[in-house]
Amino acid sequence: MTTNTYRSEAGFTLNPDENALSTIIDLCTANPDLVLFHRPSKFDWVEVTASEFLAEVRALAKGLIANGIEAGDRVVLHSNTRYEWTLADLAIWSVGAATVPVYPSSSAHQIQWIIEDSGAKLAFTESRDNTAAMEHLLVGEGGQPRLSGSPSQLQRIVEFNSGGLDELKAEGADVSQELVDARVAGITHDTLASIVYTSGTTGRPKGVNLTHLNWYHQATALGANPIGAVAKPGRHVVTFLPLAHVLQRAVSLALTMHGATQSHWGDTGTLTVELQRAKPHMVLGVPRVFEKVRGAAYNKAADGSGIGKKVFLAAERAAIAYSRALDTPQGPGPLLKAQVKVFDKLVYSKVKAAIGGRAEYGITGGSAMSAELSHFFRGMGIPIYEGYGLTETTAAACVNNSEHCRIGTVGRPVNGYAARISADGEIEISGDGVFTSYWNNPEATENAVTDGWFNTGDLGEIDDDGFVRITGRKKDLIVTAGGKNVSPGPLEEIIRQDPLVSNALVVGDGKPFVGLLVTLDAEELKRWKAENNVPESKSLRQLAHDAELRAAVQDAVNVANATVSRAEAIKKFRILERDLSEKDDEMTPTMKVKRNVVAKRFAREIEELYKR
C-alpha cells in the first residue's frame, strides 16, 4: 500500500544511440574553440578549449588501452577535485571501462575494500600519499599481490603529481584513434559506467552500479532545470565538492555536456579565493558550505564591533521576513522592501562579494538545510535550491528550482523521476536515473529495489503539489524506553543553526528520555569568552559545566524542543570537549555525522547523561 505518488514527466527524450560521453564528444567536435575549463598552470590560470580537452581525453584513453584495460574493466580514481579528475574519468569511459571513485578522505581500510571488491586493474591517484595507501595491493610477478592473501587485481598506479598522465599518453602513442572510437561506439545505455561506493554512515560501503543510462538521464534532467540557466556557453561554475560524490559529478557532467566553463578547486579551506577569482554564476554546495558563508559574514561583522553584530542580525531577520513574505498572496510590504534595500548595501552585498559577486543562485543537497538559512539567502537575492537524492538515484531525484520552489521541502521529482510514500512512511523513487543493482551483492539489491522502486530508507511526505518533505531517516529513528519514536534529524538541524553550536547528535534509543551530545563552534566560543569575561586559556573541559555557557546552549535546545511534544523533547545534554571531524571518521565527506561511530566513541559521555 502506498500513498501520495508523484511522477514528473520527462521534458526530454534520450536517444538510445547517445550517452553523456558521446554528447560531450559531439560538442567538442562541433565547437573546438569553446572554453570548457580553466586550469592552473605555473601560478596562473589558462583556458582549455573543447578541442584541447578532447585531445587529452583521447590520448589518455589510448594509454589505458596500451596498458591492457578492456571494456568492462574497473579503474579506481582517488584524488581531490581537479581538472585531471575529469580528464581521467572520461578517458576511462572512452575505453568502455567503469570508473570507481574513491573519496580523498577515505581510510586505508576503505581504499583496500574498494580496490579488492571492485576488482580494479588500474588506479589514478593524485599524490604520493594516495599512491602509498594502495601500493601494497599491487600485483607483482607471478600474479600475486604484495599483500599476502589479498584478492586485489591492481596492476598499475598512475599518479597525477609525478607526471603519470604524460607517461600514460606516451605509452598509448601507437594506439590508433579508430580503436578508441570503436570502444566509444560499443557503449550502450546498459553499459556499466561507474561503481560508486556509498559513504557509509553505517556499516561497510556498498558498490552502487550506475550505467551510462543512469548518468545520461541525470545529467540531462539537471541540464533542463535547475542548472539550465548556467549550463550554457559563457557561464562559469567552480567545481569544488569531491567529484567522488555523485551530485558534484553529475552537475559537472551536465555543465560539460552543455558547454559551460568550469574551474576545479580541491581546497575548501581557501575556496573564497577561487570564488572571487572565477566569479561563478551558480554555487553548488552541501548545507555546511552555505552555513560557513553565512557564519563567516556574521563573524566578520561581530568581530568588528557590537554595532556590526546587531546590524548583521537585523539584516538577517529582514531577509528572512522578506523571503517568507514572498510566499504570501500579498508579498513583501513597502517597509520590508525598503529595509532589504538598505541592508543590501550594508550587509548582503558583502556576502555576495565573498562568493564572487555574480552568483544568481545555489543548489544544495547531501543533508538537510534549515529553512531559516534558505530564507536568509533567498531574501538577500541568492535563492538556494535544496534537492534530495542518493548514490542509488545517481544524485538528484528531487530538487527545487526557479519555477517550482517551496522552502522546507526538497522540491518535486526531477524530470523523469517519480516519488511515492510507502505504507510505513518511507520514500521510494523510480525512474531512469535509479540504479538496478549493487556490485556483487544480490541480497542487498533484493532488499533495496522492489518492482523498479528504490527504498531510500528516508521517511517523508508528499504534498498535493508534489513537493517532497523529509521527516527523518528510518534507521536513525530513536525509540525511547517509554516506546516513543523520535526522529533526531529535525531536532539536530534546528540546534545547529545556533551560532554557538557546531554539531549536534540526538541520542536516547532504549533510554528513559531523549539526550543530546553537542559540540561548539571555535570562533563563536572565543567570542562568547570575550563577551563574558572568561579567560581565553580556559578549556572546554573546564567550561563544560559552566552555568552561563550551558544556559546559552540550552537556549538552542529550547528552540528545537518547541517544535516537538514533551515526550520527544531533549531533557539533558552534554558538551563534548572537541568537535567532530571527517579526519577522525566521525563525519562523511558530505558532512553527515556517522552516528554509529560517534555513539561508540562517546559511549561514556552518553551513559553519563542517564546517571542520576
> Could you give the distance between the termini?
45 Å
The biggest beta sheet is recorded as: 6 strands, antiparallel
Question: What coarse outline follows from CA principal-axis ratios?
Answer: globular
Corresponding CATH superfamily of the domain at 2-11 and 18-269: ANL, N-terminal domain
Strands, total number: 27
CATH fold description of the domain at 2-11 and 18-269 = Rossmann fold
Number of separate helices: 21
**What proportion of the residues form beta strands (DSSP E)?**
15-25%
**Mean residue pLDDT:** 92
Q: What is the CA-atom radius of gyration, in angstroms?
A: 25 Å
Low-confidence segments? none
Q: What is the helix fraction of residues, given as a range?
A: 25-40%
CATH architecture of the domain at 2-11 and 18-269: 3-Layer(aba) Sandwich
CATH class of the domain at 2-11 and 18-269: Alpha Beta
Supply the helix-strand structural class: alpha/beta
Family: Belongs to the ATP-dependent AMP-binding enzyme family.
GO cellular component, one term: membrane
Keywords: Fatty acid metabolism, Ligase, Lipid metabolism
Pfam family, one: AMP-binding_C_3
What does this structure look like?
The structure is a single chain. With 612 residues, the protein is of the alpha/beta class. Among the domains are: 2-11 and 18-269, ANL, N-terminal domain (Rossmann fold, 3-Layer(aba) Sandwich); 477-609, GMP Synthetase, Chain A, domain 3. Helices cover 38% and strands 22% of the residues. The chain is built from 21 helices and 27 strands. Strands 1, 17, 18, 20, 21 and 22 form a six-stranded antiparallel β-sheet that branches. Strands 12-13-14-15-16 form a five-stranded mixed β-sheet. Helix 2 (50-66) packs across helix 3 (83-94), helix 2 crosses helix 6 and helix 11 runs antiparallel to helix 12 (306-326). The radius of gyration is 25 Å and the shape is globular. The two termini are 45 Å apart. The model has no long low-confidence stretch (mean pLDDT 92).
